[in-house]
Amino acid sequence: MKRTHHCAQLRPSDIGNEVVLAGWVNKRRDLGGLIFVDLRDREGMTQLVFNPEHNKKLYETAYGLKREDVIMVSGKVRQRIEGQSNKDMPTGEVEVFAFELEIVGRYEILPLYYFVPSYVDTRL
C-alpha cells in the first residue's frame, strides 16, 4: 500500500473514493459491534470504521490495535451517519470504511530508565 492522502485532507467531495491512509492510532472504540479508530498523522485526524460483517478477520485485527500503533489502511470514504458528524474536526463529516489494514509497528512501552527525573544522577 502507498498513502494517497493525509488524514486531514478528506472532505465530503471525496465520498466514494478509495484511499490509503497511514498514521498512529489515536483512539480505538468498540461501539455496537463496530470498531472506530481515530487515525492521526502530522496533518490531522480521520475516523476509520471496521465492520465484522464485512470482514471478520480485519475486524479482529482492528480490535487488537492499541494507542500509538502505526498502521496503514485502505478503504472507501463515506458520509458519517446523520447526527454523528464532528464539527470540531475538519474531516468530521466523513469516515473511511476499511477494506485492508497493515500494522507497520506496534507501540512498546519504554523501559523505566527513560522516565528517570532529571535531578537523579544516572552516572553510576
Key traits:
124 residues, mainly beta, OB fold (Dihydrolipoamide Acetyltransferase, E2P), 5-stranded mixed barrel, 6% helix
Would you summarize the structure shown here?
This protein has 1 helix and 5 strands.
Report what the structure shows.
The N and C termini lie far apart (47 Å). The mean pLDDT is 89. The protein has a single domain, classed as OB fold (Dihydrolipoamide Acetyltransferase, E2P). The chain is 6% helix and 40% strand. The chain is built from 1 helix and 5 strands; from the N terminus they run βββαββ. A hairpin with a 4-residue loop joins β2 and β3. The protein has a 5-stranded mixed β-barrel with strand order 1-2-3-5-4. It is mainly β.
The dominant shape is: globular
Overall SS class? mainly beta
How is the largest sheet built, in terms of strand order?
1-2-3-5-4
Kindly report the oligomeric state of this protein. single chain
The biggest sheet, with number of strands, parallel, antiparallel or mixed sense and barrel status, is:
5 strands, mixed, barrel
Tally of discrete structural domains? 1
Q: H/E series, N to C?
A: EEEHEE
Low-pLDDT segments: none
User: What is the fourth-level CATH superfamily?
Assistant: Nucleic acid-binding proteins
How many beta-strand runs? 5
What is the CATH domain class? Mainly Beta
Helix content: under 10%
- How many helices does DSSP assign? 1
**Strand proportion:** 35-45%
Distance between the termini: 47 Å
Mean pLDDT: 89
